[in-house]
Every structure is written in C-alpha cells, then in structure tokens.
Design goal:
The protein is mainly α and 189 residues long. It contains six helices and three strands; from the N terminus they run ααααββαβα. It has helices at 3-14, 18-27, 32-41, 57-99, 116-138, 153-188, and strands spanning 100-106, 109-115, 142-148. It has a three-stranded antiparallel beta sheet. The longest helix is centred in the middle third of the chain and has 43 residues, at 57-99. The N and C termini lie far apart (114 Å). The mean pLDDT is 85.
Length: 189
Amino acid sequence: MDNFEKVERLREKADVTYDEAKRALEACNWDMLDALIYLETLGKVKKSSVTTYHSSKAEEEKLHDVEKTVRAEERKMKEENCKKKIKNGWDKFIRVCTDNHFVVKHKEKKVIDIPLGAALIIFALGWHVLLILMLISLFFEYKYNIIGKNELKTVNSAMDKVAETADRLKKDFAEKSEEEKKEDKKEEL
C-alpha cells in the first residue's frame, strides 16, 4: 500500500482531513495503527471502545515514543500560536503608533502635532512632570486628542471628559470668586 492509499484509508477510519491524516502518518513513520493512536491522543478521533493490549515491550516503547512526539508537537504548536499572537499584537501596536498623531490644541489652534509613538516615548521618559503639566494646562483651555487612521475614540472621549471637568471646575471657581467679591463689597458698605 503506498502513502497516498494510507492517507485515504486513515481519513476514512478516523474521519479527519487529508492534511491531518498525512501529518499523523508522517509523525508515525507511515504506521497506520500508530497514526490512529496519535490522532486519538490529539483528540481528533473518538477513542475506540475496544481495549487493546500490547504484546511486546517494543510495541510499548513505540507507543511511548508516539506519545512523546504528540506532546512535543502540541508544545510546539502552543509556542507557535503564542509567538504569532505576540507578533500580531506588536505589529498592531506599531501600526497604531505610526498611523496616529498626538495633537495639543489651544483654543482650537494646533500647538503640537507629533506621531503617537514619539509622544508615548516622551511621556514614558518624563511622565511625572508631563502629567502635572497636562493637568494644569487643561485649566488654560488646552485640549489633547489623538487623530489619524484609528483615532482611538475611547481615549479621545476620556480626554474630552477630563477637559470638560477642568472647564467646569474653572467656571465653578470663577463663580465662587465673584460671589465672595460681592459679599466683601456688601460688608464694606
């Protein structure tokens, strides 16, 4: 029986795809029984209700080798998936950093417009000073936004809410100051 026939026969018995059957046979040196056991251990095939007994030490060792191969392949697949996720996440982060800009406006006029990646680096280096300056500048009608392909709506809405809060505090403070001045004038009279 040639390899193609073995793949087809395993596909029928195990109800798996051509690629899965071929990979299993290749991992088991084209041994049909070992390939079927291999697929069972991967959860691709329901384990048969027939109990099997190994008649020799050599067969037990062969089965042990297949199990080691299965575990090694599963570990390798998990590592590859993890690496792919990390790479995809990093690629997305880089795209967001290059496709978007951090913009500082004062009374709707752009004061600063730099790539988001550069802004993140600058903020990481001097966050303790920049955070205080940013909060203070909100009371002087400065606003912060991220513009570009992604626009990061949740970040922009959060920054807008902080700016609105600063404006409201500023107005409340101005109103209280005016009330205190009026009360002082009344007391003088």
